[in-house]
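Here is one chain, start to finish.
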Amino acid sequence: MEDHTETRGLQRKNLLTVLCLTASFMVIEVIGGILTGSLALLADAAHMFTDVAALLLSSFAMWMAARPHTPEKTYGYHRAEILAAVVNALVLLLLSVWIFYEANRRFHSPPEIAGLPMLAIGTIGLAVNFVSMKLLSGHAETSLNVQSAHLEVLSDAISSGGVIVAALIIWLTGWLQADPVISAGIGLFIIWRTWRLLSQAVNILMESVPSHLNVQQVAQAMTAVPGVKAVHDLHIWTITSGLEALSAHVVVDLGTDRDALLMTLEQLLKDRFGIEHTTLQIVDEPNVGIQVERGR
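Its structure:
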């Protein structure tokens, strides 16, 4: 649990750094859009504003998750991170709808865009996005909240890349429709990545079995421990990203050292399956539920 806490602390620090970088560049884009008259840069600044709001939400959620548990919140506030991931995913989906709307409007009525200033600011934006992605990439697989923030920054990087490509095409050929065409492609990519994130978050809220674990395999590993006759009422769920929980009733042989058996089972679940939060109850007879008996 200590390693988990230290990891969360580093995640919060990196997330705040990314928030400062993103907010700073958003201001640069607003100023650049006003000075150059580029609607594309102002639109991207609006995109950045939604990212700043999402990163603020993620940072707040991680702060909430670090708060200690209470008699009313026995699991603490870990689920705040998952709720933030859901909100961020919904914001990204709405942003994609807006991108499609703007792309359609601009394709039929493209605004005048200053290619060179757009290219310069897009290049700076891409550099900022790469730094932000580097800060978050090490934690994206262990925290769904950080993964949603990473996806926000990734969409920014792709958007900046699209701005650069569109700026080059506009500057070299004068084809203004390049901007909406590339924007629509960015919208499709965001939807594809966001849908996966949203599915993961909903599965956690529904207390589904984590995708990397199999209930039958866990039960069979437990019943293979000497002294265990059967396992039933087995439940596995995720409290927050990287923190799985398990509860089960364990039927034991008569005369078994129950304390030693519990320690063995807890160590097995931790070492083999990465499950550290366990609630195991020793019972004499199996009841209705998921049941795996030794030798069957």
